[in-house]
Amino acid sequence: MYTISKQFEFSASHQLNGLPDDHPCSRLHGHNYIVEIVLESAKLNEVGFVRDYRELKIVKDFLDQNFDHRHLNDVIAAQPSAEQIAYFLYHQFKIHVPELAAVRVSETPKTWAEYRR
Question: Does residue 25 have an active-site annotation?
Answer without folding.
Answer: yes
